[in-house]
Design brief:
Layout lengths: L2 H14 L6 H9 L1 H12 L3 E4 L10 E2 H10 L12 H8 L13 E10 L2 E10 L2 E8 L3 E2 L5 E4 L5
Antiparallel strand pairs: 1-7, 2-6, 3-4, 4-5
Length: about 160
């Protein structure tokens, strides 16, 4: 790690610490490094992760209906994001904050579903013309590894 990267990391750690941190708690964290590691992990770890259902991995595809069923059966749907989540609204309001790793992918928000006529659709985010936009995909469609679900990170649960 270069010195500039370390300084940036240390600054991020300090900014992430609670403002009401008292010296006794700080000393306890130093003595119990596991506690400090947990606090840092929660403060610095991303609040989200991208998830591919088993059938989407290794070049496979799945229908939206099958992905939806898998997320329901595994209870991963409970960790799915919706359009109204603050994180998602932040990306839509400030395109510069949209993660670079998401560009070129369709990022699905499995708790944002709607029915139009006889078609069920799910919302997804995509990068288009240097901005984040919301689109809707039919559950009848097939999705590959470039169409992950956006889930709340298991490390923040």
């Amino acid at each position: 790690m270069e010195i500039n990267q370390f300084v940036e990391f240390a600054s991020a750690v300090v900014r992430s610490l609670p403002r009401n941190l008292d010296p006794v708690t700080a000393q306890r964290w130093i003595r119990e490094q596991g506690t400090l590691a947990d606090v840092l992990r929660k403060a610095l770890a991303p609040a989200f992760e991208l998830y591919l259902a088993p059938g989407q991995q290794n070049g496979g595809t799945m229908t939206g209906f099958d992905i939806d069923k898998h997320l329901e059966e595994t209870k991963l749907i409970d960790r799915a994001f919706i359009l109204d989540d603050e994180l998602v609204k932040g990306w839509l309001a400030n395109h510069a904050t949209y993660p670079e790793e998401f560009k070129g992918k369709a990022i699905f928000l499995w708790k944002s579903k709607r029915t139009i006529g006889s078609n069920r659709r799910v919302a997804y985010l995509c990068w288009h013309d240097n901005r984040v936009i919301v689109r809707w995909a039919w559950l009848e469609s097939r999705w590959s590894g470039r169409s992950p679900a956006l889930l709340m990170s298991s490390s923040v649960l």
